[in-house]
């Protein structure tokens, strides 16, 4: 005997409800796995219902206990299916990552003016329309590709006499491991858009850190610029131009040379002639 099961409707999230076009299905996934999970759950309950005695309808003509169990089982199955799908990276995430990698390399190699959407798309192995779909324009692509978080340390928690060494080590670690940062330094040397992006990072991320330890509030920007002259100068020499003497220094040697100067820029009293 087959139980009369209620028509259980699972209300999917908006991203699944609205995926009506082919592009949306590719990005969010279609409903076939959801419907399959729901169908199997209902069939399993129907098999159990056929193996037992008939069950009377619930009070007031509503669904019986077995029918309610079928609905609950279907919802649990669908939820599990969606959770499993959410754990997998979406194809759009991989596409965006490929676009940004290609854009950083292209901007670094050719500069902002000469780099093109078509060239970036070719490097990423996709159609140019996909680049425009995700980023809208070359300006939007450049902004996304040059998004940088320096992860600046909280200097108020560092012993004051160690601030210079702490900052130099932090920047050396970042430049050694962060291709985005290296690419942006290369672009900034030859391109006004790249220089503007680096200036924005300086203003938004370095100046507030310097303000926390600077002895005079009216000197914060001046001291932050002096800090940048040391850090960017070493980054350019060591990681972009790759000058052999700069590359040959090990990290602790760089710290020993730069840290006292950075320490003075950030914490010492200004020279009398300043």
Overview of this protein structure:
This protein has 274 residues and is mainly alpha-helical. The protein has 3 domains: 74 residues, no CATH class; 55 residues, Orthogonal Bundle (Arc Repressor Mutant, subunit A), CATH 1.10.10; 113 residues, Tetracycline Repressor, domain 2 (Orthogonal Bundle). The protein is 70% helix and 0% strand. The longest helix is centred in the middle third of the chain and has 24 residues. The chain is elongated. The termini are far apart.
Share of residues in helices:
over 70%
When the domains are counted, the total is 3
Q: Main beta sheet: strand number and arrangement?
A: none
The total count of strands amounts to 0
Q: Would you kindly provide a brief summary of this structure?
A:
With 274 residues, the chain is an all-alpha fold. Helices cover 70% and strands 0% of the residues.
Question: Which key terms come to mind for this protein?
Answer:
274 residues, mainly alpha, Arc Repressor Mutant, subunit A, Tetracycline Repressor, domain 2, 70% helix, disordered N terminus
């Amino acid at each position: 005997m087959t139980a009369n099961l209620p028509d259980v409707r699972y209300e999917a999230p908006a991203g699944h409800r609205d995926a009506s076009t082919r592009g949306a299905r590719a990005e969010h996934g279609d409903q076939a796995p959801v419907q399959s999970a729901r169908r199997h759950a209902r069939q399993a309950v129907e098999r159990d219902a056929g193996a037992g005695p008939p069950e009377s309808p619930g009070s007031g003509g509503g669904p019986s206990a077995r029918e309610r169990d079928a609905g609950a089982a279907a919802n649990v199955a669908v939820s599990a299916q969606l959770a499993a799908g959410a754990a997998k990276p979406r194809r759009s995430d991989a596409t965006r990552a490929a676009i940004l990698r290609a854009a950083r390399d292209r901007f670094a190699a050719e500069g902002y003016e000469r780099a093109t959407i078509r060239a970036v798309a070719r490097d990423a192995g996709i159609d140019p329309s996909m680049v425009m779909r995700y980023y809208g324009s070359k300006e939007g692509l450049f902004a996304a590709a040059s998004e940088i978080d320096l992860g600046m340390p909280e200097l108020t928690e560092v012993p004051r006499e160690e601030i210079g060494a702490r900052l130099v080590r932090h920047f050396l670690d970042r430049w050694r491991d962060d291709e985005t940062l290296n690419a942006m330094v290369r672009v900034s040397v030859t391109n006004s858009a790249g220089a503007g992006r680096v200036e924005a990072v300086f203003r938004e991320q370095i100046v507030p850190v310097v303000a926390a330890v600077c002895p005079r509030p009216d000197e914060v920007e001046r001291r932050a610029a002096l800090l940048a002259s040391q850090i960017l100068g070493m980054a350019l020499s060591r990681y972009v131009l790759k000058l052999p003497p700069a590359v040959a220094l090990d990290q602790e040697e760089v710290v020993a040379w730069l840290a006292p100067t950075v320490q003075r820029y950030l914490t010492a009293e200004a020279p009398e002639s300043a």
